[in-house]
Amino acid sequence: MTMLEINSGDTAWVLTAAALVLLMTPGLAFFYGGMVRAKSVLNMMMMSFISMGTIGVLWVLFGYSMAFGDSIGFELGATRDEGPTFFGILGNPFQYFGLQGLMSPDAVAGSLPAMAFVAFQACFAIIAVALVSGAIADRASFGGWTLFTVLWGILVYFPVAGWVFSFDGFTGEHGGWIANWLGALDFAGGTAIHINAGISGLALALVLGPRIGFGTKPMRPHNMTLVMLGAGLLWFGWFGFNAGSALSAGTTASVAWVNTLVATAAAMLAWLLVERFRDGHPTSLGAASGVVAGLVAITPAAGSVSPVGAIFVGGIASAACAYAVGLKYKFGYDDSLDVVGVHFVGGLFGTVLIGLFADPNSPAGVAGLFYGGGVDQLWRQAVGAIAVTVYAFVVSYLIAMLIKRTIGWRITTADELSGIDLVEHSEAGYDLSPVYYSNKVQRTLFLTKDDLPETETTGASK
Amino acid sequence: MTMLEINSGDTAWVLTAAALVLLMTPGLAFFYGGMVRAKSVLNMMMMSFISMGTIGVLWVLFGYSMAFGDSIGFELGATRDEGPTFFGILGNPFQYFGLQGLMSPDAVAGSLPAMAFVAFQACFAIIAVALVSGAIADRASFGGWTLFTVLWGILVYFPVAGWVFSFDGFTGEHGGWIANWLGALDFAGGTAIHINAGISGLALALVLGPRIGFGTKPMRPHNMTLVMLGAGLLWFGWFGFNAGSALSAGTTASVAWVNTLVATAAAMLAWLLVERFRDGHPTSLGAASGVVAGLVAITPAAGSVSPVGAIFVGGIASAACAYAVGLKYKFGYDDSLDVVGVHFVGGLFGTVLIGLFADPNSPAGVAGLFYGGGVDQLWRQAVGAIAVTVYAFVVSYLIAMLIKRTIGWRITTADELSGIDLVEHSEAGYDLSPVYYSNKVQRTLFLTKDDLPETETTGASK
Amino acid sequence: MTMLEINSGDTAWVLTAAALVLLMTPGLAFFYGGMVRAKSVLNMMMMSFISMGTIGVLWVLFGYSMAFGDSIGFELGATRDEGPTFFGILGNPFQYFGLQGLMSPDAVAGSLPAMAFVAFQACFAIIAVALVSGAIADRASFGGWTLFTVLWGILVYFPVAGWVFSFDGFTGEHGGWIANWLGALDFAGGTAIHINAGISGLALALVLGPRIGFGTKPMRPHNMTLVMLGAGLLWFGWFGFNAGSALSAGTTASVAWVNTLVATAAAMLAWLLVERFRDGHPTSLGAASGVVAGLVAITPAAGSVSPVGAIFVGGIASAACAYAVGLKYKFGYDDSLDVVGVHFVGGLFGTVLIGLFADPNSPAGVAGLFYGGGVDQLWRQAVGAIAVTVYAFVVSYLIAMLIKRTIGWRITTADELSGIDLVEHSEAGYDLSPVYYSNKVQRTLFLTKDDLPETETTGASK
Amino acid sequence: MKLITAIIQPEVLEQVMKAVVRHGVGGMTISEVSGYGRQRGHVEVYRGEEYTIDFITKVRLEILVDDPECEEVVQVIAGAARTGQVGDGKVWVVPVDDIVRVRTGESGLAAV
Amino acid sequence: MKLITAIIQPEVLEQVMKAVVRHGVGGMTISEVSGYGRQRGHVEVYRGEEYTIDFITKVRLEILVDDPECEEVVQVIAGAARTGQVGDGKVWVVPVDDIVRVRTGESGLAAV
Amino acid sequence: MKLITAIIQPEVLEQVMKAVVRHGVGGMTISEVSGYGRQRGHVEVYRGEEYTIDFITKVRLEILVDDPECEEVVQVIAGAARTGQVGDGKVWVVPVDDIVRVRTGESGLAAV
Ligand SMILES: Nc1ncnc2c1ncn2[C@@H]1O[C@H](COP(=O)(O)OP(=O)(O)O)[C@@H](O)[C@H]1O
Ligand SMILES: Nc1ncnc2c1ncn2[C@@H]1O[C@H](COP(=O)(O)OP(=O)(O)O)[C@@H](O)[C@H]1O
Ligand SMILES: Nc1ncnc2c1ncn2[C@@H]1O[C@H](COP(=O)(O)OP(=O)(O)O)[C@@H](O)[C@H]1O
Which PROSITE patterns does the record cross-reference, listed alphabetically (chains A, B, C) (predicted)? Predict the structure, then answer.
């Protein structure tokens, strides 16, 4: 642990940023919650909220330590002149078990109290898991999902966060291999968060199978005001996410802030233009989706491109996502709320475009292909992205299969038809009628799958 | 007033924290507003908003001075070796009347401009009053409530805030007796805010009597998305509340931040587990309630327990609250939105558990019973909690009776049936129909109490 | 550009404030969105969101430079002893084109990284445009509005922002004439933002003409919870707006913070009192409107009045606005969501009342009429307010006419009746029914204007 | 067989329901409607302007009964729904040719 | 006595209401429904995919009238609701055995 | 002419609609209602307290048909809506005096 003095301005900013990032998870709950049908809104929101519960506790117990403890790994040839040769795989889970020792005024991380860094990174872990839930809307048992958050946190997120975010000598002597050995640039988590969550969402969507009616009914958002609220809170919180990742309040944070604004602005415009010309109408769901796509794309790049570069990164990635969200209909995986289409694709574009647009005048000081830097950074970005994609997909798939074989994943067909809110939470999202019925319920039917005509049952691998 | 130099980092954090705390009151408005039936949502929200109006103005005029002016009191034997012997009761209301003198660059409080401290504490006063309103949902005249906010602010909150938050020599030579003479630990207001508001809610619920149908109809939340929004904003704002109470941006704030995260996470899990095993289903209302219970419980303890201790404080208090919210049905007081069950009980547990879990390595540096500190801190905590409970209950009861005897408290039975929004505010919360009726109204009936069958009229002491 | 060292505390505060201001635009989207009828909620929100897209990109490209580049202008006699003689009209658009040079650690603005100042001011530009949209709810084509945001940004906002916010020697040698040559006090944008947007809204309302049914049907808010959410987020964000305008974290910011709290509290009370005595009931829409009116009024004055003065500024301006919102019915312009009544009138009162209430002990250190300062400041305030009013009205009117004559402004009568959400965005705001219809649509009718009885068609200058 | 339709005030729904169930009616179907009738002229103020309110929320009950019970059930409903105020609503009776219980396919009286 | 039921476009509700009231009808009951009929085939694009829309929001009017007025009221409604476009809706008439005014207990014609 | 009204479970709406359309019915009107009937006693727990649920969301279908088709359409609906569980609902038939198509003014059978 580096021993520097605590800077109150940097600490103020990072504590603020941490709160902003924490707010992103409720924001995501509303973004996702508004996109499902009225009968599933509570379950959708609960999938995000429960992540705050399980990951919040795990992070304090050993999650932080698995990510930021001194890394276990091995020596390997360096990838750069005088670059590190240590290939770090997993932080020591016991070093900071229960956050021991970190309350001391001497425990610092850079210019921050160690606990401020713990706080900031905790919220990254929470939202990463929550993001995955969008791929399996309306149909996953709440118990199954809760178990998934625990296993995915331990087996996927904590290690990968260490690979990407743990720099040598910051909280431990050795950090993770992507940040140090490979040297891929990932300012705030394009790989560790978005590629990671996005591809894990694909694994889950494949294991759970599509919703009843997928591809034949539109299943449009039931409450676009909630979606817009989510998008607004996400954008707001993302300033903490990206600019906070500078871990100090200075030029780097300010550049990341401006890039987070302008890439997102460009991304919103790009998505709306695609819709305008492809579908005839720019939609509010398109605006919200463009916002998120832009935020995802600029996440890895916020510290390494110029504001003008950020316009390109946001615009290109968003247009790509606007097309990618249609792929699920083509290939038949029900990525219900476009976790793959937006987070995986957007994260991938953002991560790789750094290799093209990295500006040597930006805080990262690296030149991408278009700035005369050649392909050196490009291949590092690609390798980082691919590594996380493969690891996350395989492990998530295995976790998902394990849950399916043990406690089970999917609610029954009748329950899915009646609505998951009532069966899993015994609640209904809304009762806005001014008329007061005594004890009205919205749950109605106890169908079995056999009661449905063949055509209604999709080929879901239940 | 201590004369130190203003630290820009500390100021940045406290101004941010103040804004976060301010947001908690609208957050509470949504949390409470979503929990009532559709016909009362606006009145419920207005009870919070009006507190921002009345208390905001009073605070500037003399509220701050009553809490943080040099305290009026008397000498009494010290409770600790070399502890203070002055028993401070009430800040001098004239010292800072109209905040005079506090705009000067020389007016500081610790490392902050005095005005930053004024701002931060103003938001505490506002939300404390607003919290009470949940106990009397759906039935209190808006005029009666508005008057209550004024009287309660003056007679209950401003003095009690001085007892708990005014430290000797910080903004006046003498502060309040709980903080200084007794030496109870209350980091951010478990006593002054939550016990205080919670028990005052009980007094009001007793004076106003139950809603029509209380105990025989479920009266479930009409809009759970609004409740979840409230819970999300409250959690977000509470980082300002708790970590801001450090009044500086350093290790103490960071520890309080992490404790505020993890206690709440544990509390959410605890409440959901109680529901899962008692009622069969974990509900979203349970998650939201657990979040608030955890936040309440960690409020006094955020600076005096370790993160692992915080897991226990949050978990234990939340489970207790999950059972306590059922007591109103047993005893027949209509604490409509569980102000007593969550804020009083949660505040009590949080305050007292410090006596058990206080960790000498935490910023407060005090050892509780489980950390070898004996019962010294425990009894101080208990005395502080009891004192606030008794004072607040008695004075609130008297204020409530006064209002009942003078301008009246409760709307008529017919108005309560039709819905308080229309009668008190001449508005309806929602008109979501795509069909446009010219001038549709949702108000319908002009019943008198006699028109109702006997069984429908509860034993409310109107 | 002044060369000072970057202060991390100031930077932390301004980055936070920038994020708060950014959140105001979604907040405004909800505030406005809730006030229209259910069939227009998405379009209303999209008018705000698209501003984030277009202005966000323009700001980075040349908007910042047009406002804060070294100003083009001419010499003119000074208005004060030793006051500046340069009359600055427009920042050099090429100086900071694409924000060139501002990523450098040497690029500072006061004690901030230049990029932090860019970020903060970007959000001002975004919300200024978005505010205008409330005047033309339910009837403007989305393409027309989008084009308007671009033209208004370039021709109205960027220049006026330079006049008011660009101080000599801060980001360029010469700044704008209102701030420097005239010396009107405008702490956070009463002229540049609120008068500017408010009067531009009037121009648009006149050009577009009233909605069908204006003045004969109430057209009440369809979702008051959304309005209250908007009001809450606006108030929260406004602390960034006003206290952030100190551009440092110290006494000035703290005073502005407290003023922003108490003026708004007083304004809410004032509006509710007007309603109570004029209409019989204090409404939640009144509370929300009062909040916004108070925030608008204190915006210019936050740094130049005492907290007690702020109570007067907020209270007086809000009462004036409460009456002013009724003028549209008298004069027949359909300022649908009271942009003129609240932003223009509130901004005007706030700006001019400084001339009366400016307190020499406040950070600005200027004495208004009531504090013995005579009318010197008063006329400066009046001139500033009038100049912006005239410029903005004329240019906005011309832009609006240009759009009307070219791509067209107003949707068809049939589309307006059916609802703009479906025609412009092919979406509906809500589908809250628990019953799942396959592919239900809320769009229904393809009426032409001739199908309507005469009385239904207002005299809109279509 | 008859279909009784009643338009009543929302606030009396619960007591009406209890009354008819006590009377032996085994089922009913309920919906929300807006009523226009004598009960109007109610004036609301919005933004300082006055507007007259035309439509008022009501509840609609539909009850299928056997002919002989019809008369009495109508009386029970009207009795339980009466507050004596303008706007109390209407009850009317329509002849029904046939009724089928979906679950069993039974028809006629057996299906009520 | 008759019960007239009309399914109309939401946008014409106001003019229909005014027309029947002008014609002397003193009350009516209104609700929101979804209609399926000839008016369909409307195609919407969502996330780049096309879907056909089946149900369309309509308004349902119920008016109790005395037999002699019935014919005319039906014409008034149909006239006021006509836009000439597919989807304009239907009006139908059902015989009513009896009507009771809840407030007074009056029945038959007096209750209309 | 007849008016067939059916109260069915919301989940079977789609298959009922498809069945009647396949059978040749060209239009229908749908609304949401709450039903009270044998299907009750369902108990929910809220805040640790138990409550019995009385009203359950149902869908109401109205279909105008010509007399000869009536019987069959009723059977088609009942068949498609049947799940065999309590709460499946009812279908009933009411005589209709006249029908008018708003768009054209046609009346009687031509208007169905
Ligand atoms: N002719 C009618 N046809 C259908 N419904 C009617 C008719 N007249 C009244 N109603 C319904 O009955 C309700 C009460 O009627 P109203 O005339 O206001 O009071 P009352 O029945 O007490 O005289 C109305 O809101 C409307 O829903
Ligand atoms: N057979 C029917 N039974 C009941 N309602 C019908 C029937 N046919 C049409 N409707 C209602 O009338 C509305 C308009 O019918 P549609 O066939 O679309 O147009 P039109 O009546 O102009 O030919 C439908 O949306 C539906 O609500
Ligand atoms: N007498 C009745 N009049 C009107 N609607 C009824 C009647 N009885 C039942 N219903 C409707 O039919 C639905 C199903 O009835 P229920 O008795 O629960 O089951 P089932 O028809 O299978 O015996 C009810 O929810 C209600 O909407």
Answer: AMMONIUM_TRANSP
